[in-house]
């Protein structure tokens, strides 16, 4: 079983795009297990990750594709907690969404994405926001 840690923030577009990338993996419905991970930077109300819209959207996409998953959460520095969760869960890969960048900024990732890429000892896949066309 190929275990993916899918890091999800509050941006539903980025989150659903990376979930769709996972559903396109070969034999995803039978050979992939996903840990949907959300990090709260600040959570004074004590919310659960399952209350975050992007987490629910990702779960819906994965379940529709027949991919088994679980939801994990933590609080703290997003890059550090993503790497810690991947190690604890013994993930085979980390998937996370990238942000739209200006032409000059395309050579650089966001700070969380860059920190995860540089700190990971396993493959990291970054997918951008789904493009929509104006009609």
Automatic annotation (TrEMBL):
<protein>
    <submittedName>
        <fullName>Nucleotide-binding universal stress protein, UspA family</fullName>
    </submittedName>
</protein>
<dbReference type="InterPro" id="IPR006016">
    <property type="entry name" value="UspA"/>
</dbReference>
<dbReference type="Pfam" id="PF00582">
    <property type="entry name" value="Usp"/>
</dbReference>
<feature type="domain" description="UspA">
    <location>
        <begin position="4"/>
        <end position="126"/>
    </location>
</feature>
<comment type="similarity">
    <text>Belongs to the universal stress protein A family.</text>
</comment>
<dbReference type="InterPro" id="IPR014729">
    <property type="entry name" value="Rossmann-like_a/b/a_fold"/>
</dbReference>
<dbReference type="InterPro" id="IPR006015">
    <property type="entry name" value="Universal_stress_UspA"/>
</dbReference>
């Amino acid at each position: 079983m190929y275990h993916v840690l899918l890091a999800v923030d509050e941006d539903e577009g980025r989150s659903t795009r990376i979930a769709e990338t996972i559903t396109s993996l070969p034999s995803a419905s039978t050979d992939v297990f996903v840990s949907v991970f959300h990090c709260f930077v600040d959570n004074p109300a004590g919310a659960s990750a399952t209350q975050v819209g992007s987490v629910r959207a990702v779960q819906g996409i994965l379940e529709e594709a027949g991919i088994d998953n679980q939801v994990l959460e933590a609080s703290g520095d997003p890059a550090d907690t993503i790497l810690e969760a991947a190690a604890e869960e013994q993930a085979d890969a980390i998937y996370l969404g990238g942000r739209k960048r200006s032409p000059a900024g395309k050579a650089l990732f966001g700070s969380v994405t860059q920190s995860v890429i540089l700190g990971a000892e396993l493959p990291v896949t970054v997918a951008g926001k789904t493009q929509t066309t104006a009609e």
